[in-house]
Amino acid sequence: SVPVAKQLVSIKALGKSSDLEKAFATAALVYNNSAGPEGKLSKAETKSLLQTQFGRFIQGQENKPKYQEIISTLDEESENKIDFEDFMILLVSLTLMSDLLQEIKKAKSTK
User: Where is the EF-hand domain (predicted)?
Assistant: First the structure.
C-alpha cells in the first residue's frame, strides 16, 4: 500500500492547502485505505483503526463514561458498518474528551 504522505502529495488540489485541509485529507485517506469496497468499516475495524491511528488521543480515556459508551457501541455484535461521516463524528467526539486536547490547548506556537 502507498503511504498516506505520498498519497497526499499526489492530490494536486492539496498542493497549496492549509494545515487543516491536509489534516482532514489525511483522515479521509486513512479511512479510505482501511474501508472495504463499499467504502465503509465494520465496527471491529473502526475500533482497531482508532486504536492504531488515534491511540495518543484515546490513551487514558478508558474510565470516562462517554468513551465507554462510544467503545461499547463498537463492541456490539451488529452488521452495521461505519461510514466516513460517522467515523469523523467519532474522531471529533474522542478528540473533545481527550487529555491530549488539553496539552494541545496549552501548546504555544513559536516563531
Answer: 62-97
- For 58-100, what is each residue's pLDDT tens digit? 999 989 898 888 888 887 766 789 999 999 999 999 999 998 9
Which of the 8 DSSP states describes residue 63?
T
Compute CA 40 distance to the chain's CA centroid, rounded to the nearest angstrom.
14
Q: How confident is the prediction for the chain on average, in pLDDT?
A: 88
Q: What angle do CA 81, 33, 101 make, to 5 degrees?
A: 80
CA 88 to CA 92: how far, in whole Å?
6
**What are the cell numbers at 66?**
462517554
> Could you tell me if 99 and 71 are in contact, meaning their C-beta atoms sit under 8 angstroms apart?
no
